[in-house]
Specification:
330 residues, Rossmann fold, six-stranded mixed β-sheet, 36% helix
């Protein structure tokens, strides 16, 4: 068997739809009805496997396990986002890694754009106050800047952040961007202006986090920044929860209740029982829904099947992950 599915049966069946499997069968020597788990490595002979197709739930294997179970493995095609949990061992064994992070970035960027446009119109503030105060709310619609000359802050311009910036080009707003890996010229070419975190939190009416999940970024968004948020400003997080000092965010939101936080991710996730977020009127929690879901998951499989064909035909790949890239990936 030249190619296999490796991972959790539930998620592989979810992502690799009937359409995707039919497309994959046209391009690879694979039994799409067979799904292998880590437990199968000790009992099944998979030594002739050259390609692995996977998604959420890809097992984390040690280098010794990879060399023993897959001596002929050439590449892993991961139909999901981050590969940080498992990729290094494969790369150290000379196995190429390809990720559908760019496909998963699309719905996240779409959700983020929608939230930004709603935030500048005061939607989340109006929602927090509720239907019973609709008469009073009509008096405050001009308290919000709307989608013209609003300052929008983007923290982190990786795959998702870049896509958000590109989508914002269609609106007459100013986009400030914090990303230590990009120059002012690179950010300008995307449609933004390079800024510090203090400038973003102090000047922007909407702030959206897309920082990579790295040890040095954990808790980087703290009270010194949240305390700079303007009246009626909104903090969005569809990135990672660990970058936010949640106690500091709670303190800043309580100090000025016109500030709003819309959190699709937290740390831990969901928040622990009795966390203040559950009862705060100016916090909106969503169930990590920004990433691929529903019909969107098929896009990730198609990205990886098309990438497989490029690799098989010795064409330049679009979504390869290297060891150097792992250091700055989300």
């Amino acid at each position: 068997m030249k190619a296999i599915f490796l991972g959790e049966e539930r998620t592989i069946n979810q992502v690799y739809t009937a359409f995707a499997r039919e497309k994959l069968c046209e391009k690879a020597d694979i039994d799409t009805s067979a799904i292998f788990s880590k437990d199968d490595l000790a009992t099944k002979n998979l030594k002739d496997t050259e390609y692995i197709f996977s998604t959420w739930g890809m097992p984390n294997l040690a280098e010794e396990e990879i060399k023993e179970s897959f001596p002929n493995l050439k590449a892993v095609f991961y139909a999901a986002g981050t590969v940080k949990e498992f990729a290094k061992a494969f790369l150290n064994c000379g196995v190429r890694i390809f990720s559908a992070a760019s496909a998963n970035a699309i719905p996240v960027a779409e959700v983020t754009l929608a939230q930004i446009l709603l935030a500048t119109k005061g939607f989340f503030h109006h929602t927090a106050l509720g239907n019973k105060q609709i008469a009073d709310l009509k008096k405050t619609v001009n308290d919000y800047c709307g989608n013209m000359r609003a300052k929008i802050g983007i923290i982190g311009a990786g795959a998702i952040g870049k896509l958000v910036i590109e989508k914002l080009r269609g609106f007459d707003n100013e986009v400030l961007v914090f990303d230590p890996f990009l120059t002012a010229e690179q950010i300008s070419s995307l449609g933004g202006k390079k800024a510090t975190l203090k400038e973003i939190f102090g000047e922007c009416i909407v702030i959206s986090n897309h920082l990579a999940d790295k040890e040095e970024t954990k808790g980087i968004l703290n009270y010194s920044l949240f305390s700079l948020m303007q009246k009626n400003s909104v903090f969005l997080n569809t990135g990672r929860g660990a970058q936010v000092n949640e106690a500091d965010l709670t303190r800043a939101l309580n100090k000025d209740k016109s500030r709003i936080a819309v959190l699709d991710v937290t740390h831990p996730e969901p928040p622990e029982e009795n966390h203040p977020f559950y009862t705060m009127d100016n916090v909106i929690l969503t169930p990590h829904f920004a990433g691929s879901s529903g019909n969107e998951v098929e896009r990730m499989a198609i990205f990886m099947i098309d990438e497989f064909e490029r690799v098989k035909n010795n064409e330049a790949p679009l979504y390869e992950v290297t060891l150097d890239m792992l250091e700055r990936m989300a």
